[in-house]
Amino acid sequence: MKIFWRILAVVVGGIFVYAGAVKVLDPVQFGLDIDNYKILPWFVSVRLAFYLPWLEILCGLALILGFLYRGGLSILTALVFVFIGATTAAKARGLDITCGCFGHASQHWSFGQHMAIDLGIFFALVALLWIELVRGVHNDQKN
Amino acid sequence: MKFRAVGEAFVILALACLPAIGEGFYFRDKASWQSPIPESELVTVDQARAWGSGAIWVDARPDNEFAADHVPGAFSLNEDRWNELLRQFLPNWSPDKKVVVYCSAQSCNAARDVAKRLRDEAQLKDVFVLKGGWEEWGKKNR
After folding, report:
1. Predicted local distance difference test score (pLDDT) of residue A33
2. Is the pLDDT assigned to residue B30 strictly greater than 70?
3. Which residues does chain B have within 8 Å of residue A68's beta carbon, measured at their own beta carbons?
4. Residue A62 pLDDT greater than 90, yes or no
5. B27: which residues sit within 8 A by CB, 6+ positions away?
6. Which residues of chain A lie closer than 8 angstroms to B33, CB-CB?
7. For the whole prediction, is pTM greater than 0.90?
8. Secondary structure, 3-state, B37-55
9. How confident is residue A77, by pLDDT bands cut at 50, 70 and 90?
10. H/E element holding B127?
11. Helix (H) or strand (E) holding B100
């Protein structure tokens, strides 16, 4: 079972490394994608566009390498949670948004496709976090 | 476990700042830091009107809004019917004319997106976005 969780962590980490790398190449476009949500002022969106992709890459690497693993896992879970909330709010406000999550590949995804992928990733992260929590409690009891 | 996770999270959050700052420095001239549209690509209603017949107006709003009212002489060019409307628009364009694109208001994205596609896909030069959009035009023409 341990190998299953390890593979899941590497796959999820790989997804975030890819997603971050795609956005690092075109931060200006990613800034426009964040701006489309109409939640943040532009000067915040453009700065986040330079920061978030690197955060995704580092967290993804943390999951793959197992170094700073819990920190990376916690940040990614929070990020995806916020992203699902922002996407749902944008949809409710009738905004036609392009998330730009995976660059051009995700440009023509429907809202349903976005949500299915985001929820899948979110549940995988929550499961990994849960397992880590259980292991932590188990180790504490041993000690 | 909680404290360790929080500590590690802070380390990652801080580490991510370094490449982000470096990339920001690299893109310092390419990114527009104060507005999604660089100031050089914006035009005010007064400036655009002063261009007179040298300006060609493009309405990036949806068909129904264009049908309700628009800037006199403007061409409808929205992303819903991009190919069809672009074919109708291009014969009216000439290299000596400045293109002024507008959408509903300052906060809309349609004008910015249409202007970008006119530059990138149609290879047009001198494409500007109207500051304040149709809302601002209405204020100045009441």
Report:
1. 85
2. yes
3. 8, 11-12
4. yes
5. A27, A28, A50
6. 43, 46
7. no
8. CCHHHEECHHHHHHCHHHE
9. very high
10. strand B127-130
11. strand B98-102
Asked if B111 contacts B59 with a C-beta cutoff of 8 angstroms, the reply is: no
B70 at the A interface (CB within 8 A)?
no
ipTM, 2 dp: 0.85
Of B4, B6, B23, the CB nearest to A24: B23
Question: Residue A131: how many CB atoms within 10 A of its CB?
Answer: 17
Radius of gyration of chain B (CA): 20
Architecture of domain B39-140: 3-Layer(aba) Sandwich (3.40)
Neighbours of A107 (CB within 10 A): 12
Q: Please tell me the least confidently modeled range out of A110-114, B50-54, B82-86, B109-113.
A: A110-114
Interface contact A132-B1, CB threshold 8 A: yes
Residue B99, helix vs strand vs coil: strand
Report the C-alpha gap between B133 and B69 in whole angstroms.
Answer: 13
Per residue in B52-103, pLDDT tens? 989 999 999 999 999 999 999 999 999 889 999 999 999 999 999 999 999 9
Closest residue on chain A to B112 (Cα): A32
- Which chain A residues are closer than 8 Å to B16 by Cβ? 51, 54-55, 58
A71·B5 Cβ contact <8 A: yes
CA-nearest residue to A32 within chain B is B36
Residues of B in contact with A27 (CB under 8 A): 23, 27, 31
